[in-house]
Specification:
disordered N terminus; mainly alpha; two-stranded antiparallel ribbon; globular
C-alpha cells in the first residue's frame, strides 16, 4: 500500500505546470539514484542561500561602482519609473541594461540546459542584485528604506506560504496547478498583446494610455505578486518531490534555483508595488 501511495504521489506531481518556468522540467524527470547520493533538503536550502548571497554580492558591486565610477559621470538622462522621476548617467543605464540582458540569457540557460544551472543561476542572481541596487539607490534615491520594507514583506510572504504548505493547508493539487497555469498564461498573454500593440503606430497611443493608468498598472503588479506567491507552493511541492522520490543530488541545483528565482521575483514585484503606492507622493 505504501508503494501505491508513492506511485500516486509521483503521478500527481507530473502535471502540465507544477512549478515556475525554471523548475518545470523537473516534472518530467523519472531518474532514481542507485549508486549515487540522493537529493536532500539541507543541501537544497544551502544552495538557495548561495544564490541569494550572489544577489547580495550584486548589490554590493553596484554600490562599489556607484561610489568609484558612476558618481563621476554626469547624470544627464532623465527617466520616470512608475511616476518617480530620476536621473542617471548613460554609463549607469548601459550597465543596468546589460545586467538585464545577461539575466534573461542566464535564466533561459538555467531553465533549459540543466548542467549550467550552478553557473548561470549564480550569474542570474548576481545580475538581479545589480538591478535591485539600481532601483533602490538610484531610482529611489532618498527613499532607500523601500528596499528594506520590500525585503521584510518578502520574508513574511515566503515564511507564511512555507508554513501553509508544511501544515497541509495549501497543497499543489491538480486543480491548484490548473488555476496557476491559467493565471500565468493570462499574464503572459496580456504582456504580449500590450507589447504588440505598442509596436503598432495606430494602437500605440491606446496602449500608452492603458499602461499609464495608475489602477491598471497597480492591478497588474498585484496580479504578478499573487502568481509569484502561488508559485512558491509549486516550488515547495517540487522540492519535496525531488527529495522524497530520491532523485540524484545533481537535481538539487535546479530545485534550489527555481525557489531562489521565485523569491527574487516576489521581492522585485513587491518593490514595484511600494514604488507605485508611495514613491511619487512627494
Amino acid at each position: 500500500m505504501n508503494g501505491n501511495l508513492k506511485s500516486a504521489k509521483s503521478a500527481e506531481t507530473k502535471t502540465l505546470l507544477h512549478s515556475n518556468p525554471v523548475m518545470s522540467r523537473l516534472n518530467k524527470i523519472d531518474d532514481r539514484a542507485v549508486d549515487e547520493r540522493t537529493a536532500a533538503y539541507g543541501r537544497i536550502a544551502a544552495k538557495v542561500a548561495m544564490f541569494l548571497l550572489w544577489t547580495v554580492a550584486g548589490i554590493m558591486i553596484y554600490l562599489l561602482l556607484d561610489s568609484r565610477l558612476f558618481s563621476a559621470q554626469n547624470a544627464s538622462v532623465a527617466f520616470s519609473y512608475y511616476a518617480v522621476k530620476f536621473s542617471a548617467s548613460p554609463m549607469q543605464i548601459g550597465f543596468f541594461a546589460g545586467a538585464g540582458i545577461i539575466a534573461i540569457i542566464c535564466q533561459l540557460l538555467a531553465a533549459f540546459v540543466r548542467v549550467t544551472t550552478p553557473v548561470t543561476g549564480s550569474i542570474y542572481s548576481l545580475c538581479q542584485g545589480f538591478i535591485i541596487s539600481f532601483l533602490i539607490f538610484t531610482v529611489l534615491q532618498g527613499k532607500e528604506y523601500f528596499g528594506l520594507l520590500a525585503l521584510i514583506i518578502t520574508i513574511v510572504v515566503v515564511m507564511t506560504m512555507a508554513l501553509l504548505y508544511t501544515k497541509g493547508i495549501i497543497r499543489a493539487t491538480k486543480k491548484f496547478n490548473m488555476v496557476l497555469f491559467t493565471l500565468f498564461a493570462s499574464m503572459i498573454g496580456i504582456s504580449i498583446l500590450l507589447f504588440i500593440g505598442f509596436l503598432i503606430p495606430v494602437t500605440r497611443p491606446f496602449v500608452s494610455l492603458v499602461m499609464g493608468n495608475f489602477w491598471i498598472s497597480l492591478g497588474l503588479t498585484l496580479l504578478s505578486i499573487i502568481i509569484a506567491t502561488l508559485f512558491l507552493i509549486s516550488d515547495f511541492s517540487m522540492i519535496e518531490n525531488v527529495v522524497e522520490n530520491k532523485l540524484p543530488a545533481k537535481y538539487e541545483w535546479e530545485a534550489a534555483f527555481g525557489l531562489a528565482f521565485t523569491v527574487l521575483w516576489i521581492y522585485v514585484k513587491v518593490l514595484d508595488l511600494l514604488i507605485q503606492l508611495f514613491g511619487n507622493r512627494d
